[in-house]
Amino acid sequence: MEPEARDEATERIQEDLAQALLPRYEILGRIGRGGMGSVFLAREPALKRLVAVKALDAHLAASSVARQRFEREARAAAALSHPNVIRIYGVGETPRDRVPFIVMQYVEGSALNQWQREHGQVKEVDARRIVGQVASALAAAHRHGFVHRDIKPGNILIEKETGDAFVADFGITAILTESLDTAVPKLTTSAALVGTPAYMSPEQIAREPVTPKSDMYSLGVVAYELLAQQLPFPEGTTPAMLAAHMLDSPQPVLKLRPDTSPEMAALVDRCLMKEANTRPTAAQVAHAMLPSFEAALAWPPPGLHALQGRARRLAGIALVSGVGALVLAILLAFPPEVVRIEGVWWERFGPQAGSQLGLESGAAVETAPWWWWLGSIAALVTIGGGLLWMLVAGLRTRTALAKARALG
User: Fold this and answer.
1) Is residue 136 within 8 Å of residue 80, measured between CB atoms?
2) How many alpha carbons lie under 13 Å from residue 260 in its C-beta half-sphere?
3) Which of 158, 189, 326, 357 is exposed most, by the fewest CB atoms within 10 A?
4) Sequence-separated (6 or more) residues with CB below 8 Å from residue 89
5) What is the pLDDT of residues 350-400, one digit of tens each?
6) Is 124 helix (H, G, I), strand (E, B) or coil?
7) pTM of the model
8) Do 377 and 297 meet the contact criterion of CB atoms below 8 Å apart?
């Protein structure tokens, strides 16, 4: 992202941040804005790297709940060490307006919703990578007793260079363990409706206690939108959307995206089950979407059994042709005595052969034995037929391989 144009409010917070971050960081400009504040791009000269600085809006800094929620995001993300979670480098407060800020990893890229608008229909292989990486990050969060509660495309960043997904914004994270409850107080009550309506689980809408399975429902909505290019419940109003999450069943992924593999479509459908205990865990989704190294090296790869059979046939044809060539080479290297004459041996069988040998017209000429002729002809036919067969089979295999590659 490039820094945005500066307005008066941006200039004030940027100047305040610059004072607070010097000499370690140098503020370059604002690159984004969220529900609670702004994100600035900064440079760390000592390590020659860029970082992102998220600052709470000044009018929210006066709210103790907003400040605690902001601090919760930093603590939750800092407690997780995972390659697909935005890393936290530090926290602080500006000297003039006492605005809290978080210094974090800078991901050069865009949020998933913007990334999808730019790429159009997402290939299944890309959807698998994104969903699998987010699920892997959530599995780590769940192991540490965190529930994100706001998984949506806007909170998933896609790195431009690698295409990797990063989970951001743990600001409304729920704490599940007692030890963490004492460290970070709860900021919402059972009566609060927290999350984004289009991605909320039925239990969130019903204001029931959230669990890790709530995150899996939200991730299921994200995966559904990636594959089908629409939300499972695209109702026009928020109440209608919330009611649909509670009561309706979405159209199957395979109906809207027939080229989706049955395994992935079934997994997305399971994530969208109304009953939380019927949904898969984050670890199960990550394992299904991101196969292990051993599984990736399994042979034949899934869907390539037909190509393996073609390769065996090609090898068989090549073997038969090779045997024919060997037989012909032996016959030519060790011809019968009648064939062995001075000069070019095949002149022995020309139309002038009799006169060259001093025989009168009509006299019988000794010829090579039948087995030598039969073997030579059979070898030639085997070689020629084998080469032709290999050419046709090779072209068919190339076509089949191109189709398999197009399917991923």
Assistant:
1) no
2) 27
3) 189
4) 51, 103, 104, 105
5) 555 545 544 444 444 556 677 777 777 887 888 887 778 778 877 877 777
6) helix
7) 0.66
8) no
Distance CA 340, CA 245 (A): 92
Per DSSP, the residues of 60-99 read HHT-HHHHHHHHHHHHHHHT---TTBPPEEEEEE-TTT--
On whether the CB atoms of residues 30 and 56 are closer than 8 A, the answer is no
Do 82 and 140 contact (CB within 8 A), yes or no?
Answer: yes
The b/e string for 61-93 (b: 16+ C-beta within 10 A; e otherwise) is beeeebbebbbbbbbbbbbbebebbbbbbebee
CA–CA distances in Å: residue 143 to residues 27, 82, 275: 35, 12, 21
| Cβ-proximal residues to 187 (8 Å cutoff; 6+ apart), any chain | 65, 68, 69, 72, 172
169 catalytic per annotation: no
> In angstroms, rounded to a whole number, what is the distance separating the alpha carbons of residues 348 and 280?
82
CA distance 95 to 98: 5
Catalytic residue of the set 7, 57, 126, 150: 150
pLDDT tens for 291-343 read 754 444 444 454 555 556 667 777 777 787 788 788 777 767 767 665 555 44
Pairing outcome for strands 146-147 and 156-159 = unpaired
Residue carrying structure tokens 């949904």: 279
Cα–Cα distance for residue pair 28/318, rounded to 1 Å = 65
Per-residue pLDDT tens for 81-90?
899 999 989 9
Taking the C-alpha atoms of residue 167 and residue 158, their distance in angstroms, rounded to an integer, is: 9
Instruction: Classify residue 34 by its DSSP letter.
Output: -
Tokens of 327: 């037989």
SS3 344: coil
